[in-house]
From TrEMBL:
InterPro entries the record matches: DRMBL, RibonucZ/Hydroxyglut_hydro
Keywords, comma-separated and alphabetical: DNA damage, DNA repair, Nucleus
Main location: nucleus
Organism annotation: Spathaspora passalidarum (strain NRRL Y-27907 / 11-Y1)
A Pfam match: DRMBL
Record's protein name: DNA repair metallo-beta-lactamase domain-containing protein
Length: 638
């Protein structure tokens, strides 16, 4: 199988940054996934900026930000008094003091303001539009092609909004609301492609659906970019739509359908990435009843629910299963080095950690005092204070699951920080229509009397360093109300599991043995060994530096992209004809290495389904013991 050599600017994989040495089972060629020479620069896999002069922590922060870079323009802040925040409850033991005047502009950028929500106004119709100057055509990797009959085909695109208008494509799919996927979209984008040279924007009959996405993603497009809903087809999750008929005209945007007539059908399935994210299952039925099935994964995090999903069950490796012709795979972490723990495990572990910390008695041997160095005097002084202000680093959307898991365990509220460009963050979360989240969101940054903690959703830079964390804590005068401030930095890029060094072990004979080792055991994760140990409990005595007793930042292996192990399970346990990587496809070395890995996965699939024996191919020599171990793998091993 050969990987696509398609070029085009797109999100790059962390694969390029792995430092592993593995051997392919077929060619037995050693592939070193490291920097080429000492003359090469270490570059960001997203924006290609040189990171050579940065520390590993600074490199991590830079890449994390780039992975879901937000293109919104920050509105300049005007120096003003931060208004008194209106409490959520009528009676409070703590009255929030009004911020003094004047306020240093440097401090102002850290201070939360009163949350003000405005109803979505009517979207103004433009009087004219300026045509885009973009000349780059949509690359083939972003175009899905379906045969109608031998000499005729139909095409749609996925996540291709930063290219020149296409002559024949009229249906553009958006997998989720992250800027590396919607990049290029604007209010005029749809007008340019629907109206072309026509300026009769008042004519309702000339509008048509051109953007296809989930309901949440569609709401976010309108909220942030003022995209008129008349241009958007909102797709309900797990609902099959006919979006094109090959024999007759159909309603604009298509309709829900279980028909089997010639045409193109699509079913969005939750991608477990960020709110509103989807994978698209396309099914085309040609005029001669030839069926073509393509699964586009966008960005996704494989979990057991996806592996056992009823709508994907038909493509499992059972003897009578249907074959997926193509799978466009999110290969962001396609390296054995990135075998981080399951997202659910990380969320549960972090939530349990805070629960256990808060349950502890204030004795010298307690968990709390061991890791935070609590003394008797400080506990008397802080008697009326809440224990924790928990800051969770987030992007414009994403990472909310971590905050929700903690909130459920501690029964505490969630506050949305509106510093920087976060003025629409509240409205953004409201588009999720999440019943639990809506019930715990508060406009009071101090929380209420029902809980001894509160969670703040903050920009990722606030949890990037202790200095930033302390600025946020001090400039908002949270020290008057909370004993400790803990920042959580969710990231998958810098995760280094304990067995990382085994990946480089020259004794490992090939990909297949390494694959079996990774798939046979799910990575463990606990707070005593993997979280609390990240910093010492020794207080900082350096003058002018933040007190480490008061502030803590923990990096968590919480990713919204699939790990190497999860990708392996997805490819091996589904009947797939061709896997097409969608990330890091410009680099020939990476393409070759990803091709070798995919071939290994396909070999494992053949072993599990008993469609290969050691004597089938002289180039494939597999130890019988290894074959037996691989055949023992199943979805129950996940």
């Amino acid at each position: 199988m050969k990987a696509s050599l398609i070029t085009g600017k797109k999100q790059r994989s962390i694969f390029e940054f792995s430092r592993t040495r593995i051997q392919a089972p077929v060619s037995r060629e050693i592939i070193e996934i490291t920097s080429d020479t000492e003359d090469d620069y270490v570059r960001c896999p997203i924006c290609e900026l040189s990171l050579s002069n940065l520390t590993i922590n600074d490199r991590t922060e830079h890449v994390d930000a780039c992975l879901v870079r937000v293109t919104f323009v920050e509105e300049p802040l005007k120096p003003q008094i931060s208004p008194t925040i209106k409490p959520d409850i009528k009676k409070r033991k703590i009255i929030r003091k009004e911020q003094p005047q004047p306020i240093d502009p440097e401090k102002l950028k850290y201070i939360n303001k009163e949350i003000v929500t405005k109803p979505q106004g009517e979207i103004a119709i433009p009087k004219a539009i300026t045509k885009s100057k973009t000349k780059r055509p949509i690359p083939p990797l972003k175009i899905m092609t379906f045969p109608i009959q031998e000499s005729q085909k139909y095409q749609v695109s996925v996540d291709a909004f930063c290219y020149a208008p296409h002559d024949t494509i009229s249906q553009y799919f958006l997998s989720h609301f992250h800027s590396d996927h919607y990049g290029g979209i604007s209010k005029k984008w749809a007008y340019e492609r629907v109206f072309k040279d026509d300026t009769d924007f008042e004519n309702e009959s000339k509008y048509r659906r051109i953007i296809y996405c989930s309901v949440i993603t569609g709401k976010l497009l309108t909220l942030h970019f003022s995209i008129d809903p008349k241009f958007i087809k909102h797709l309900e999750i797990e609902t099959r739509y006919q979006i094109k008929s090959y024999i007759t005209d159909i309603d604009d945007g298509g309709y829900e359908s279980e028909e089997q007539t010639p045409g193109l059908y699509v079913t969005p399935i939750s991608a477990n990435h960020c709110p509103g994210s989807t994978i698209f299952l396309f099914e085309s039925i040609g005029l001669e009843n030839k069926r073509t099935r393509i699964l586009h994964c966008g960005d996704f995090r494989v979990n057991y629910e996806i592996l056992s999903h009823p709508l994907l069950k038909q493509f499992s490796i059972d003897p009578n299963s249907i074959c997926l012709d193509k799978v466009y795979l999110d290969t962001t972490y396609m390296s054995p080095a990135y075998n981080f723990p399951k997202q659910e495990l990380v969320c549960e572990t972090v939530a349990t950690m805070f629960q256990d910390l808060m349950k502890e008695e204030t004795k010298s041997t307690s968990l709390f005092s061991t890791w935070f160095g609590i003394g008797t005097q400080s506990r008397i002084t802080d008697f009326w204070k809440k224990k924790f202000l928990i800051l969770v680093g987030t992007y414009v959307i994403g990472k909310e699951k971590l905050a929700i898991a903690i909130s459920k365990k501690l029964n505490c509220p969630i506050y949305i920080s509106n510093i920087g460009s976060r003025n629409k963050k509240w409205d953004t979360l409201k588009t999720y229509d999440d019943q639990y989240l809506d019930s715990v969101l508060t406009t009071n940054d101090l929380g209420d009397d029902s809980s001894d903690a509160i969670i703040h959703l903050v920009p990722m830079n606030i949890v990037s360093s202790t200095q930033e964390l302390s600025n946020y804590f001090n400039h908002n005068k949270y020290f008057e109300y909370f004993e400790r401030c803990v920042g959580l930095r969710p990231t998958g890029w810098s995760f280094s599991p304990g067995n990382h060094r085994e990946i480089k072990d020259p004794e490992i004979p090939n990909h297949l043995q390494e694959l079996e080792r990774i798939m046979s055991k799910s990575p463990s994760f606990d707070y005593l060994n993997n979280i609390l140990t990240q910093v010492t409990s020794t207080p900082s005595k350096t003058k002018g530096k933040p007190d480490k007793q008061l502030y803590r930042i923990y990096a968590l292996p919480y990713s919204e992209h699939s790990s190497f192990r999860e990708l392996a399970y997805f490819v091996i346990f589904f009947n797939i004809n061709r896997v097409i990587p969608t990330v890091n496809c410009e680099n020939e070395r990476s393409i070759r290495a990803m091709t070798d890995i995919i071939e290994t996965w396909e070999l494992a699939r053949r072993i599990i389904t008993n469609s290969i024996k050691p004597s089938d191919d002289d180039d494939v020599v597999v130890d019988m013991e290894l074959i037996e171990k691989i055949q023992q793998l199943s979805l129950n091993s996940f």
